[in-house]
Design brief:
This protein is 14% helix and 38% strand. The chain is mainly β. It has one domain (2-111): 4-Layer Sandwich (Deoxyribonuclease I, Chain A). The strands form two sheets. Strands 1-2-4-3 form a four-stranded mixed sheet, with no helix packed on it. A three-stranded antiparallel sheet has the order 5-6-7, with no helix packed on it. The longest helix has 16 residues, at 9-24. It is globular and about 50 Å long.
């Protein structure tokens, strides 16, 4: 699993440009602080051919400035089947099945603090 506090989606785009192979070598990738307020944002389309894309929008506290938070979780389609997803105010939980081992994994995969919970 790869996790990164992106501090904005533009930094994710920059990471892809610098080292796409390293980025796509991970099975599960989590980002916090995407600052994107829209669920299923079209900016995430760059990932949809290889990953299940799970996102939780950022929230805007005031009219001025940018939104705060935002989670993005990518699960590699080649290695996992996605069974169930739940989004909470500060986390994304998913049930995935590993295709080679048939192991079922139910975890809160991405929490706003970046920690992986069980």
């Amino acid at each position: 699993m790869y996790f990164w506090n992106s501090r904005g989606f533009a930094n994710i785009t920059n990471l892809l440009a610098k080292d796409r192979n390293y980025f796509f070598s991970h099975d599960i990738i989590g980002f916090c602080e995407t600052f994107i307020e829209i669920k299923n944002c079209s900016r995430f389309d760059v990932f949809t051919s290889e990953f299940f894309v799970l996102d939780h929008p950022a929230t805007r506290i005031s009219r001025g400035g940018r939104a705060s938070g935002g989670l993005l979780l990518l699960v590699k389609k080649a290695n996992f089947d996605l069974c169930h997803v739940e989004c909470f105010s500060d986390a994304i939980a998913a049930t995935v099945i590993h295709k080679k081992t048939a192991e079922v994994c139910r975890r809160t995969l991405l929490h706003i603090t970046g920690e992986e919970r069980y």
